[in-house]
Amino acid sequence: MDRFREINLFVQIVEAGSISRAADKLGLPISTASRHLNALEARLGVRLLQRTTRQLAVTDVGAEFYRRCIATLSDMAEAEAMAKDSVVNPSGLLRVTASLSFCLLHIEPLLPEFKARYPEIDVDVIAENRYMNVVENNVDVAIRTRQFEADYNLTIRKLAVTKRVLAASPRYLSLHGIPKDPQDLSEHQMLIYNYANNPLDLPFEKDGKSVTMHVNASISSNDGQIVIRAALHDMGILVQPKYIIFDPLERGELVTVLDDWELPRLTMNIAFQTRQYLPTKVRVFIDALTERFRENDFEKRWN
C-alpha cells in the first residue's frame, strides 16, 4: 500500500472508531487493513492507536498525525479539484454548517435550485448551534455571527446584518401587559437562547442613553426554535435576531416590544478555509447563498 492509501486508511479508522468499519468502507479485508496500519506505525516508529479487543483509542502522537493527515488529504483533493474544474462541472462532497434556525430558513430552501444546477455536488448540512472547528471537521462553509475569528486559517465574508428584537404573542401581552422600558422586563416571563453572548444581560440603547438589564430566564434553550415555539404558545417574551422570527412577525403571531430601544445588531458572516485556490464547489455555494440574500433584500427587511 502506498503512503497516500496508508494515510487515508488511518484517517478512516480514526473517524470510524473501528478498524473493521474503516476496512468495510474502503472495501478491504480486516486483516489487510490491520496489516497496513501496523506497517504504517512500523515505518513511523510510533504507536498511533492503542488497540484492545474492545476499544480503540488515538494516542497523543496519533491525534496530531491525524490532524496533519486531514490537511494533507484536503490539499490533495483541492489539487485534484483544481485540475478537474477546468473541464468538468463542480462535484464532490460539500460540508456546510450553521445554526438549526439558519439551516431551516436559508440553507434548506436554497438546496432544490442549487442541486438542480449542480447535481454532482453532494451537500452535507450540519445543523449545529455551537461553532464547529472548520479545519478539524473538514467543513467547507460555515455561517457565523461573530465579527472576527481567532483562526487565521479562515476567511470571513459578510453576508448580512440583522436587528435583535424582543417579541411576544398578542395573547401573552394582553394577559401580562406591554413593557414600556427595559426595567419592566423584570416583571415578565423571559424566553432565552442560551448560546447568545451574555444571554441574561441585555444592553439597550436609546437616544445616546445606555442601560443593561439583567433578566431571569423563565424558559431557556440551546436552540432558538424551542424559544420561538414557547413564545407562540404565549409563554413569555423572547430575545432573538429578527431574521429568525421575521415570518411570525409578518403573520402577526408575534409582536415586537420596546421598539424604541436598540439591542446590538448581529452580523452574519460566511466563514471558509483560507486557500490559494478556492474549490469551485465552495465558490458556487457561496455565490448562490449571497445571491439569495441579495435578491430577497433580507438585510433591509430585517433592519
TrEMBL record:
<feature type="domain" description="HTH lysR-type">
    <location>
        <begin position="1"/>
        <end position="59"/>
    </location>
</feature>
<dbReference type="InterPro" id="IPR036390">
    <property type="entry name" value="WH_DNA-bd_sf"/>
</dbReference>
<keyword id="KW-0805">Transcription regulation</keyword>
<keyword id="KW-0238">DNA-binding</keyword>
<protein>
    <submittedName>
        <fullName>LysR family transcriptional regulator</fullName>
    </submittedName>
</protein>
<dbReference type="Pfam" id="PF00126">
    <property type="entry name" value="HTH_1"/>
</dbReference>
<comment type="similarity">
    <text>Belongs to the LysR transcriptional regulatory family.</text>
</comment>
<dbReference type="Pfam" id="PF03466">
    <property type="entry name" value="LysR_substrate"/>
</dbReference>
<keyword id="KW-0804">Transcription</keyword>
<dbReference type="InterPro" id="IPR036388">
    <property type="entry name" value="WH-like_DNA-bd_sf"/>
</dbReference>
<dbReference type="GO" id="GO:0003700">
    <property type="term" value="F:DNA-binding transcription factor activity"/>
</dbReference>
<dbReference type="GO" id="GO:0003677">
    <property type="term" value="F:DNA binding"/>
</dbReference>
<dbReference type="InterPro" id="IPR058163">
    <property type="entry name" value="LysR-type_TF_proteobact-type"/>
</dbReference>
<dbReference type="InterPro" id="IPR005119">
    <property type="entry name" value="LysR_subst-bd"/>
</dbReference>
<dbReference type="InterPro" id="IPR000847">
    <property type="entry name" value="LysR_HTH_N"/>
</dbReference>
